[in-house]
Design a protein that fits this description.
Blueprint: H1 3-11, H2 43-60, H3 70-88, H4 94-111, H5 115-134, H6 137-151
Length: about 180
Amino acid sequence: MTAEQSVADRLATPADWRPEFPGQRPALGPGNTAALRNGVHSPRVFGPRADQIAAELLADRPDLAAPSYRAAVGVHCVFLARFELELAKDEPSDFWLTKLGSAVLRSGAALGLDPTSEARLTRDRAAAAAIASSIDLGALAARGQAALDARGMLTAPAAAPPTEPHDLDPEAATEHDGEDD
């Protein structure tokens, strides 16, 4: 028996369970949703919808599948899933509708999901491509190397000493002059 099974067995209501006093309820088992109202704040509720939104978004916009967009797409899909759940409530909260709606609009704009931001991103990508195609990077590197050689500067950076684990610890002991700070 695994530890996970033993926890599930402990939380499961035995068939022979009897209340000790009137109104006592059995213990809640794993995966219960007794306290869940709508799931707007529960990743196990909005998570599957966020994954579905992400799949649909990436099907429509394959350019957003690049690793550099992964976090932004994930955040946008979570905000949108939570917004949809809040909107579906019988009495949606104006506070959460405003907060989540604004987050959806901002994250969508960052991804180019509205016409204005899509046009801006398209323009910026075209400008970057035009600049990249007009510059001979090899010639530029050669001129830079020639300038460094003319000044007698080293072209390769000096090897840094290896980093030790204590170098990365801000709490590590350092030489101290013995005086209190």
